[in-house]
Amino acid sequence: MGHVGDMWGLQPEATMRLLTSFYDTGQADESFYRYQPMSFKVPLGFPALAKVILGTGALAALGLVIGVARAARIAHRRRQSSTR
Fold this sequence. Notes:
Blueprint: H1 5-9, H2 12-25, H3 46-83
C-alpha cells in the first residue's frame, strides 16, 4: 500500500495490527489484511488544480479591473456633478 493515506484509511485495524505486532515481536502480522485492489484514478490532479488556480486568479484580476473602473467612473461623475 505504501506510505499514503490509503494505508491508514482503508484498513486501519489491519495496519495497527501490522505495526504493533512488528514493534512487539519484530515480525509483521499481516493476517488481518484482505485483498483490496488499488484505484489509481486521481480525483483532482495537478493539471486540473492548476486550471482551477489560474482560473480563480484570472477571475480575481478581472473583478479587480472592473471594480477599479467602476470606482473611477463613480469618482468622475461625482467630480462632474460637483463642478456644476
